[in-house]
Amino acid sequence: MKKLNRRNFMKLAAGGGSALAAGLGFSQGALAGSIKLQEGGRDFSPTTKKELQAIPTACWQCVTRDAMMGYVEDGRLVKLEGHPDSIRTLGKLCAKGQAGVNHVYFPDRILYPMLRVGKRGEHKWKRVSWDEALDLMASKLKPLLDAGTPELFMYQYGRHKGSQSSIMHDFMDAFGSHTIGTHTSVCEGPKWVGQESLWGGMYDNWDYDHTDFVVNFGSNQFETHTNHIPTSQRLISAMVDRNVPLYTFDVRLSNTAAKSTEWIPINVGMDGLVMLSMVNVIMNEKLFRKDHLKYMRVSPDYHASDDEKIAAIKEHVAKFTPEFAEKESGVPADKIKQIARGYAKAKSACLIGYRGTVMHFHGADQERAAMLLSAITNNLDRKGGRVMGVGAGWKAPHSPKAKLQKGLDIVNGFPGEAAFPTHQVSQQNLPMIKDGQNGRPKVYWSSCNNQAFINGNNKEAEAVLKDESLIPFYVNSNIVYDETSQYADLILPDVTYLERWDTEDMVSPTGVAEFYIRQPLIKPLGESRDQGEIFAGLAKRLGIELAYTTKEEYVRQSCEMTPGVREAGGFEYMKKHGVWHDKNAKPNFGFYEAKVDVSGDGVILDEKTGVYWNYKKAGVSEAEASSKGYLGVEGAKDAYVAQNIEGTPRKAYPPNTSFLKSGLLDFYSDNFAAKGFPPFPTYTPIPEHQKMGKDDLHLTTYKVAVHTHSRTAHCKWLSEIKHDNPAWINSKTAADRGIKEGDRIKVASDLGEITTTAHVTEGIIPGIIAISHHFGRQHSGIYGSGKSSPTPGGATADPDAKNMWWDKHGTHPNSIIPNSSDPISGGQRWMDTVVRVAKA
Amino acid sequence: MGINWKELADNAKSRSDIYGLMSTVFREEPSGGLIKEMRSSRLSEIFTDLGVELGERFYTNPESKVVEELAIEYTRLFIGPGPHISAHESIFCEMDGDTGGLWGVKTVEVKKFIETTGLDYGKEFTGLPDHISVELEFMQKLAEWETDMWLQQDRKRAEHCLTVQRKFLEQHLFCWVNQFCDAVMNEAEIPFYRAMAELSKQYMEFERQSIAIDTAA
């Protein structure tokens, strides 16, 4: 090009001016108003130059969802920290929470709706307007309504909680589709199924504020717990202030294990067995407490005496001696006895269990063993023990439901795969779409769920998403380009959680519910838009009536509808304060003991089970109720009133989940027996582990403190701290294979092979290999993947990118882990894969 | 010799028009109207004369095809998804105490600077305050106002406006426009944006020399 000079400058200007004069180019400028240089425009303080606002809101990095404060300076979000008035967090916020700022401002963020213009996965896109995007979606959805097939619209979500979840369900109900996929089965489903089969409502919590003894099986409590900040700081305080001991059973020396009173290495999949051997010790040494026995059912007999129950429990666990457990688990029998005695003798004690315990074959049964250990020591829902979680019960507006409500049977696993998939079998959603036997959605919309990264066999997931014959129209809501959105037909720019409204409800460790909200700290960047607003936009196009027009309005209505919050000042109070709890409320320990009035009309006692239930509420005649009994009438559990406990009607443990049960803790479960599973908690060897060759190893996965599974890789502060995931391998196991620290190694399963780096350590038991599952990203921005772009681009324009001192981005293990479900719960068996490891 | 008000006004108007053209090009995907105008004999001759090569297909392909191709190219270069050339000053310019990223300290400075002149961001504008097209549009508007002042023979205001422009150029546009244009020239796959980036870079260099930056201002 020639150099510009005065002559061609004027010519260019004349040409440009004529084009502009013709009104071409953009329809509207960015700037409005007129220049008033002499008169002075808006002014800013010459001294401070800044305006600082503190706005209460809520985190959303992980499911803990801490209440927090955002600090905004000149319209920029500059800092996040804990909310000082939160009874859950006590003003603390973890590293992930503080790095939330990175979500908003990372340069690779998706800010505009984009339409695919190349083949799926070709990374070829065109920006479209919101009207175009919503019109397109409506054009795909309307025919489904017209044809009476609303179920062919599938919504797949990951982290949706509080109002983010309720507003989505409201929209789907208004549309009429029950084809809604979740993610819980890849996270913690077996834990909840185990608990639901016993005490009905699920989600346990631990009263660390009052406990005297803590035993932890397979939970990385101090790094990644599901209720991390609220519980971890309380456990640390208990240890430091009251010398409470913490014993951690884990295959790996996690930071939790390292901070424990003692780390007890344990073989993979043996948590339940060790728990049962602890029960064995406690029962045989008469260290149990009888208090809870009357609420327990441990044999087919609903009316067994305490002595009969004690005998039955002893018989059930007789074979699980500490010596037998030592042989299988590697935990010395004396250590099991020592911890069992300490646990039973403590005034109160907590038993923690999590992914390490339950993401196995029969993982749900391992959770039942944990509940048994808590119950026989009267540490279930007692002060200082394992207690029922208490969260905020928000009310929410409801839109009219569609008359036609249908769903595809593709969210609960393949036929016969899981007996009680109460939290779905989401790892099989895409394989079932591929299979097609139970139908396929025509419109598939996923939000906050990176299916092609978070499930097992993720290469298969990618292939399904890529295949237009399997998924004709795929919409992905996202803030970052990732393994899943790359195959979308339409990408919708989601707001970050720092730009949106929500009511929130996560469990409180104090036993007193905390109501809190999330509110935008800044205006959504670019054209990013909240799902709630998108639902409203679609509803308008589809002729669907919704009870709200914006997410803010939805939250406002919730605040004005919810008792307690309403009286405190409703929406305006919550905007100002962010959190609210009833200062007169007390923890609801021992709720099951509450006496219940059973004199109501239609309430009868079912002699067989000891359940008081209301046959009228169940919609049957007294005669039918008497002849069929509580267990024989469909819907009777929804008419549960009380349980006869030694002659007194008490609340006990109402059957408020899908399990048909009495008000007793069903340690003997007819539900399990009917499906061919052990009715009493037991030890069931993992099939794959019984067939291992001498050179085979177990593969386990784990989480690190500074990342969520798939949503934080683009957060540069976090990726700077943790960006690589060398495979942990014991020094003896490594030496047997000639592997040294830092060597490249191949890890192969029956599904495939990955190459990674060895981290040789004594901090893991021999015979296994452990790989965290956050890394090895294909995309997720330059900080997440290290790649400049899926297409040539200028990611390195971010001034901070040149400060990336690391060039490793890890290896994702999920491609060699099959989608394999716990046959009881449908939970993904992350910890059961057998692999061969060799030097690369 | 007296002041040639007309010449000063014409000069300011020319600068305003070029800023306007550049702002248009980088604001969003080109419309059919803009393509038509740029393919017109008037502008195409100027481009040819300057050696601005928009590529043969820009002139020969059907207008709708050019619009579609440039929309895809614009999205790939400036929108994403995934890493792309984020056309914002805060991405290119580092400041002490800033950690990089969108809506940085620089963004606030640009926003304040613009708002201090009495302008505001339109309600329909969904971009970020320091987008390249906004900064260019701001210069367009300043030069346009300067034009009016020369036409009104208000030397004081016109020169004050020039001072403001110099400040904005020095404190903002000049800090990153070269880098931005280089990035576009490197990454563009279609000649259009490569050529527009080169032209913009050249013009900013011309501007740097012709407007005679007064660093003491």
Say how many strands of chain B there are: 1
Specify the structural class of chain B. Answer: mainly alpha
Q: In the CATH hierarchy, what is the class of the domain at 204-388 in chain A?
A: Alpha Beta
Which value, in Å, is the CA radius of gyration of chain A?
29 Å
Distance separating the two termini of chain B: 26 Å
The CATH homologous superfamily of chain B is termed: TorD-like
Q: In sequence order, what are the helices and strands of chain B, one letter per element?
A: HHHHHHHEHHH
Strand content of chain B: under 5%
| Strand arrangement across the biggest beta sheet of chain A | 6-5-18-17-16-7-8
Choose one word for the global shape of chain B: globular
CATH class of chain B: Mainly Alpha
Briefly note the CATH topology name of the domain at 204-388 in chain A: Dimethylsulfoxide Reductase, domain 2
- N-to-C CA distance of chain A: 52 Å
Number of domains of chain B: 1
State the major sheet of chain A. Answer: 7 strands, mixed
**CATH homologous superfamily placement of the domain at 204-388 in chain A:** Dimethylsulfoxide Reductase, domain 2
Task: Offer a few descriptive terms.
heterodimer; A: 840 residues; alpha/beta; Dimethylsulfoxide Reductase, domain 2; Barwin-like endoglucanases; seven-stranded mixed sheet; six-stranded mixed barrel; 32 strands; B: 217 residues; mainly alpha; TorD-like
Q: What is the fold's blueprint, element by element?
A:
The complex is a heterodimer of chains A (840) and B (217).
Chain A: H1 6-21, E1 31-32, E2 52-58, E3 67-73, E4 76-82, H2 95-98, H3 101-105, E5 114-116, E6 125-127, H4 130-146, E7 153-157, H5 162-175, E8 180-181, H6 189-199, E9 204-206, E10 214-217, H7 221-224, H8 228-242, E11 246-250, H9 255-259, E12 262-265, H10 271-284, E13 296-297, H11 306-317, H12 322-329, H13 333-345, E14 350-353, H14 355-358, H15 363-376, E15 386-388, H16 429-435, E16 443-447, H17 451-454, H18 458-466, E17 473-478, E18 490-493, E19 502-504, E20 515-518, H19 531-542, H20 551-561, H21 565-568, H22 570-577, E21 579-580, E22 603-606, E23 611-614, H23 615-618, H24 622-628, E24 640-645, E25 648-650, E26 665-666, H25 670-674, H26 687-690, E27 696-702, H27 716-721, E28 727-730, H28 731-736, E29 744-748, E30 753-761, E31 768-772, H29 781-785, E32 834-839
Parallel strand pairs in A: 7-8, 7-16, 10-11, 10-14, 11-12, 13-26, 16-17, 17-18, 27-31, 28-30
Antiparallel strand pairs in A: 2-3, 3-4, 5-6, 5-18, 9-15, 19-20, 20-21, 22-23, 23-24, 24-25, 27-32, 28-31, 29-30, 29-32
Chain B: H1 5-27, H2 32-39, H3 41-50, H4 56-60, H5 63-79, H6 89-92, H7 105-116, E1 120-121, H8 132-151, H9 155-187, H10 191-210
